[in-house]
Amino acid sequence: MNAFAKFILMTTLPLTSMWATSITICKGCHGQAWEKSAMGKSKKLKDMSKEEILNALQSYKEGTYGGVMKGLMVEQVKDLSMEDMEALAIEIKK
Ligand code: HEC
To answer: Is residue 60 predicted with pLDDT exceeding 90?
Structure first.
């Protein structure tokens, strides 16, 4: 399966994959409508673009992004694949 077909599959799958389970957890800190500053530290995700969110998630995983609470976000993304993170970013900006 090429990357594009995989990407389409990921984004059209019903809420069964791993990122879909974790999005509920994300909302616990970032707000139901992504309107909260998580723990008073993060940007409001609703004010970020899809590209900014995706870049932040990937960079947390690589350990090259974040502020005082980045360790917490590294925990959230360490088991996610690139496809998971893309699907999350798309879902957040829906
Ligand atoms: C336990 C609370 C918590 C959970 C759960 C959580 N986050 Fe976060 N998130 C934070 C905090 C706190 C920050 C700021 C971290 C820092 O200092 O860099 C943050 C930062 C971010 C940022 C970057 C925002 C910025 O300020 O640049 C993104 C994007 C993000 N989170 C997405 C997610 C996603 C997607 C999930 C679910 C997979 C998630 N978060 C789960 C608390 C949480």
So the answer is: yes
